[in-house]
Amino acid sequence: MGQQASELSPAAVIGAENVDESIILAARDVWVAVEVGKEVKPIVQGGRLSVPRGGIVGLVGESGSGKTQFVRSIMGLSSLEPGVISGSAVYSLPGQQAIDVLQDIDDFSPFRPPGPGETHPVRQRIGWSWVLWRRRFRQRLAALRKLGVGFIFQNPMGALNPYLCVGTQLAEAVRVARPSATDKEAEEGVLHWLAQVHLKATRETLGLYPHELSGGMAQRVMIALALAGEPHFLVADEPTTGLDSHIRREVVGLLHRIMAGGELSGIVISHDLPMITRLCDELTVMYRGRVVEEGPISALGDAAAPNHPYTRELKERAEDLAKGRHSARGGGSDGSPDSTGVVADLGCVYRSRCIIHRLDLVDRERCSAALPTLSPTVAGGPRVSCHVEDPDLLADLREISAEYRSRGRQGGMSDSAGSQRQGSEAVEVTP
Ligand code: SF4
Questions:
Q1: Ligand 1 pocket residue status of 372, Cβ below 6 Å
Q2: What is the distance between the alpha carbons of residues 114 and 116, in angstroms, rounded to a whole number?
Q3: 429: pLDDT confidence band, cut at 50, 70 and 90?
Q4: For the segment 44-87, what is each residue's pLDDT rounded down to a tens digit?
């Protein structure tokens, strides 16, 4: 597969002694920020993600949680400036030396992450030109893509080249993986990958331009393009957004068939928890720029290994939707946030919506003043970012939440959170 990792900047190559062979991607403490006027706003705060070799990780969160920017940043697809400002993202792809695409980044970024007692990234003097660094970073990531990373984008119409027909785009993708392929071999490759996504490889299909494709066909072509590069690692960003329910089911079935073999590793980004449950082995949950849970998908809803209150809320909302009920919980039923933006302060990011916090079942001062670290709810269970140390309280959350909503409707349950404010953010009481 073309280029070797050693062709990248030597600084990016990691010694084998420092690499966990069971992990194909390990991203740690990733900070992403944008400059808005004179302010530096964090979008991703200390993001982390581990993808086991042969495993698929679902990255879940509402719109505005930072999940897409997090992954796009560690894949070099982010158009944000300045974008990533610190962290590490070590790829250990089959047959390649491990590389950290973010290595040295904090030496050259104009901003650094907040230190103790600080809430926002801080401007710093840089020892090298940002533009030069940016070029070097892009070179590393371009090379990474050639090493075998494929992408399925959220908006296939925007990602396909509008000037090239389907057959030409696929043939180009085949040649990325097999540069010495003859015309006949490239054509065979095109037919093979079209068949893999259940598209008829007729002359007519091959000659279609993106604007002539239906939504479902465009998504299938996008998947075929990603697969034609023969990736070891696949990233699917909201792969079913905008598709009607019938086509969505077909695309999820297709992805399931592609990803279930155990040969491919990857990430699926979505707010669609049922789809993530079907496709993935591991779950990482983000809320307002922070990872609040990570662990095996099998632990989702397991009372013996309780989830983070936000994960529980997402799960209950998905169940409500499946039953045709509109959710009365915070946030939109389509996965949109109840209020936008990242919470950049020293406390728990979820506290404005947390029922445990509202009902005073936890040390509220601690939730407001100290960021909880990720730790297992029970031995071997999911790692959650929460100050609650009693797993039974987290496990009972469904009943607590149901009673809260029911009494709230009757106007009989006091809420000690009331209309308090969290920093500059208004705390809404639902219902
Ligand atoms: S730390 Fe506090 S506010 Fe945050 S999820 Fe846990 S109980 Fe709720």
A1: yes
A2: 7
A3: very low
A4: 999 999 999 999 999 999 988 999 999 988 887 765 566 788 89
Domain-ending residue, one of 224, 258, 279: 224
Query: Is residue 370, in this structure, part of any structural domain at all?
Result: yes
Q: Which atom of ligand 1 lies at the shortest distance from residue 361's CA?
A: 7
Closest atom of ligand 1 to 310 CA is 5
Interhelix angle 215-228/183-196, nearest 10 degrees = 130
Answer yes or no: is 170 within a domain.
yes
Which residue's CA is the nearest one to ligand 1's atom 3?
A: 351
Q: At what angle do helices 397-410 and 309-322 cross, to 10 degrees?
A: 70
Question: Does the beta carbon of 386 sit less than 6 angstroms from any atom of ligand 1?
Answer: yes
Residue 372 Cα: closest atom of ligand 1? 1
* Listed residues 173, 193, 224: the one ending a domain: 224
pLDDT surpassing 50 at residue 340? no
pTM over 0.70: yes
What number does the ligand 1 atom closest to the CA of 362 have?
Answer: 7
Domain total for the chain? 2
**CB 288 less than 6 A from any atom of ligand 1:** no
309 domain-assigned:
no
From 388, 392, 396, 425, give the residue whose CB has the most ligand 1 atoms within 8 Å, as the site to mutate: 388
In which domain, by residue range, is 402 found?
315-426
Do 156 and 221 touch, CB atoms closer than 8 A? yes
Task: Give domain status of residue 353, yes or no.
Answer: yes
Q: Count of alpha carbons within 13 Å of 138, Cβ hemisphere only?
A: 13
CB distance 357 to ligand 1 below 6 Å:
yes
